[in-house]
């Protein structure tokens, strides 16, 4: 990491006031996001680094809520916002060495829950097959730990004695940010495909209700048909919202 240029230079005379919505606000959010380590660990209290950057820009979050960024991360955010640097808030964790998730092959049952939890798709595997962590892409976010039903995932330190940005480079942050972007795209696409399959199934059932249902009473069939039609309408309205 180049300590002289860890992120784009801050604007001159930064203000502690959140800017109005618009281009200037969007630019500040982007600059704040680039100053974060992109581990997507949620320890800041927000669902991802970009959400935290957005909250900082709006004045809704303090700049000392990111343990992976540590003291240097706080200094970066302070420079961008004009706010005074302050110690890391212990409610969000402590600064420490970067960690790597390790899966115990002997205990992994192939449940895929850790794969779904990983925000940067750094775990590969398939149902009922052993899963493996891609070391180079693991951000140490720890989100895979609580979802494992057999506790077969542990964390190992990979940068002893070095924490924050001393343990994580700008290049690694950029790669993590890109992988998270593609992860979001993949998850959104999978959800759309899942919803489309359910909708197609419901439409087929609606069109062939008398054949698919055990009901024979016309009144009951009409009520069932209305329930399915209403569910389809809600799904379409939600998709179009």
General description of the model:
The structure is a single chain. With 241 residues, the protein is mainly alpha-helical. It has three domains: 23-92, 3-methyladenine DNA Glycosylase II, Chain A, domain 3 (Orthogonal Bundle); 99-158, Alpha-Beta Plaits, CATH 3.30.70; 170-240. The chain contains seven helices and four strands; from the N terminus they run αααβαβββααα. The strands form two sheets. Strands 1-4 form a two-stranded antiparallel sheet. The protein has a two-stranded antiparallel ribbon with strand order 2-3. A hairpin with a 7-residue loop joins strand 2 (123-124) and strand 3 (132-133). Residues 1-17 have low confidence and may be disordered.
N- to C-terminal distance = 43 Å
Return the average pLDDT rounded to an integer. 87
Q: Indicate how many domains the architecture comprises.
A: 3
Radius of gyration computed on alpha carbons: 23 Å
Instruction: Please state how the strands of the largest beta sheet are arranged side by side.
Output: 1-4
**Quantity of strands, as a count:** 4
Quaternary organization: single chain
Amount of helix: 40-55%
Count of runs of 4 or more consecutive helical residues: 7
Structural class: mainly alpha
How much of the sequence lies in strands comes to 5-15%
Q: Give me the strand/helix succession.
A: HHHEHEEEHHH
Uncertain stretches of 5 or more adjacent residues: 1-17
Shape: globular
What composes the largest sheet? Answer: 2 strands, antiparallel
């Amino acid at each position: 990491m180049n300590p002289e240029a860890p992120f784009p230079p801050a604007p001159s005379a930064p203000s502690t006031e959140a800017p109005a919505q618009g281009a200037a606000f969007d630019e500040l959010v982007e600059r704040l996001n680039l100053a974060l380590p992109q581990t997507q660990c949620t320890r800041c209290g927000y669902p991802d680094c970009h959400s935290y950057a957005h909250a900082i820009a709006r004045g809704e979050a303090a700049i000392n809520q990111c343990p992976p960024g540590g003291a240097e991360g706080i200094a970066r955010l302070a420079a961008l916002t004009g706010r005074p640097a302050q110690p890391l808030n212990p409610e969000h964790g402590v600064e420490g060495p970067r960690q790597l998730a390790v899966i115990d092959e002997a205990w992994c049952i192939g449940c895929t829950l850790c794969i779904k939890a990983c925000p940067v798709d750094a775990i590969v595997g398939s149902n009922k097959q052993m899963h493996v962590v891609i070391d180079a892409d693991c951000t140490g976010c720890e989100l895979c730990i609580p979802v494992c039903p057999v506790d077969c995932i542990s964390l190992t330190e990979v940068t002893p004695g070095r924490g924050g940005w001393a343990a994580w480079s700008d290049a690694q942050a950029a790669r993590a940010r890109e992988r998270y972007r593609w992860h979001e795209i993949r998850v959104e696409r999978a959800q759309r495909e899942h919803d489309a399959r359910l909708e197609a199934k419901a439409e087929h059932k609606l069109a062939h209700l008398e054949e698919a249902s055990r009901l024979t009473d016309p009144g009951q069939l009409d009520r069932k048909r209305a329930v399915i039609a209403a569910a389809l309408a809600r799904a379409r309205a939600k998709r179009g919202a």
